[in-house]
Target: CREA protein
Amino acid sequence: MRSPFPLMNVSAGLLVLGLLTAGLTLPSPAVADDVIGRFSNDWTGNGLQVQAIEDPKVKGITCHLVDFDRSLIDRLSKGNWFEDPSNASIACRQTGAVTVGDIDLSQKGEEVFSERKSLIFKSIAIRRIYDRPNDTLVYVVYSRQVKDASAKTSISTVPLFSANATWTKGKPAAK
Model:
C-alpha cells in the first residue's frame, strides 16, 4: 500500500539513513582505556570527556585533556551530524619517574596527540615544546580548523628542574 504522505516516507528514510551513517562516520572517541571520566553538562546530553594521555616520548608525564562530546539531540537540532566543537583544555603533570626520549628540541616542537572532531577539516592536537632556558616541557592543545582558524588553545607546563629527569640522549645544553 502506498502512503498518502510520500514526503514523510522520504524524510523518515533520510532520517534513518542519517542515523545509520552517523553511527559509522562520526569521529571515533578516544580509546576506552584513555577516557577516565565522562559527564553530561546540560539537559540535551551534551557532555564533557576527560582523557589521560601519556606523552609517547617522555615517560612519567601524563596530560589530562577535557573536550566536548555532542549528544544525538544536539546533532539533530543543529543539523550538523559530523562534528564536535573543538573546545578543549589541558593539564599536564609528572606522574612517575621522568625519562625524556628523543624529542624535537626546535621551537615548533612536535605533536604528541591528535583527535578528529569532524569528518575532514577539524581536529584537536597536543604539541610539546621544550623550553630550554627554563628546563620546562610546554604542552599546548589547539584546534585545527580551516573555516574559523585555530584560535582555541590551552596550555600546561611541566618543569623538569626538580623532576630528576633522565635524558636518553643526554640533556641538551642551555642556550
Summary: The chain is about 15% helix and 45% strand. Residues 6-167 form one domain. Confidence is low (pLDDT under 50) at residues 1-32.
